[in-house]
Amino acid sequence: MVYSYTDTSGASIVEGRAFVVHEGRVYTLAFADLAGNFDGSVPTFNSVMESFRLHETARPATKPGAGFGAFTSSTQSPSESNASNQRDRSNQPVQPEQPVSVPAEPAPTTAAPTTSEPETTQYTSPDGHFRFTPPSAWELWEEQSTARGDTIEPWNTLFNWPGRPMTKALFIWEYFDEWEQKGQQYEVVLAVIEKIPGSQSQAIETLKNQLTGSLSHIYAPSTTRVRIGTQPGMAIQIAPRLGMVEPWSEGPAWFKSVTFYSFKQGDTLFVWALPSEMTEAPEVKAAVESFEWIRR
Question: Is the Cβ–Cβ distance between 126 and 57 less than 8 Å?
Answer without folding.
Answer: no
